[in-house]
């Protein structure tokens, strides 16, 4: 995809996103379609920490923030997450006479942060027009960063007291930099998302969020499954399992802990959640 075509697609997406408030105003002047979700602000923050000292030394921290505002015609959403780990790893360094020597060093082993946002215009009870953005920075990935914007059609497949299921699909643009490369690149993508929530008991639910960004150079997929146990109105415990996969490795020199290349990363977390 040439830079000129990429620029045209990006401009079209931005113009469409900028025109959404006008569409909402037109709808409000007539007979607005209201969201069925509770209106106003809602959100949650979560934190997980594990640290060891003594014979072993490690630190693991993950945190997340989720904010949502629901109005008559619009639903705004913002989320952010961070992951950082340090631990003792064995590093091969040149020794006397050039002979490699294995040395234990305390180093950063994971450093990733992401944030994203969306604005959804509610068309009717089941359909909405959604503009999204996502930024992902990972020091231990084949990409130094990935940034994507997209305009999607969203549709509610199922909504009841116990079950929520919806999807989004649409075109977008991704900006990225391959690890070890100084140049930034752009490409068109097709973005898809599937969100599922099932209430198991009065205080327990399971959530699953699938995100796919498909492009000619690579397809990125992320699936997050959470089991949430609500302890009271404000506090909850969450166990999460996340899988991130790239169909191609754009940097064959990227090494994981076993010395090979890996297209798939997994993350298991246990966090304390505060709802507000």
Automatic annotation (TrEMBL):
Endpoints of the signal sequence: 1-24
InterPro entries referenced in this protein's UniProt entry, alphabetically: DUF481 (IPR007433)
Keywords: Signal
Pfam families in the cross-refs: DUF481
Top-level division of the source organism's lineage: Bacteria
Biased composition (Polar residues): 30-41
Record-annotated membrane-spanning stretches: none
Record protein name field: DUF481 domain-containing protein
Species this protein is from: Metallibacterium scheffleri
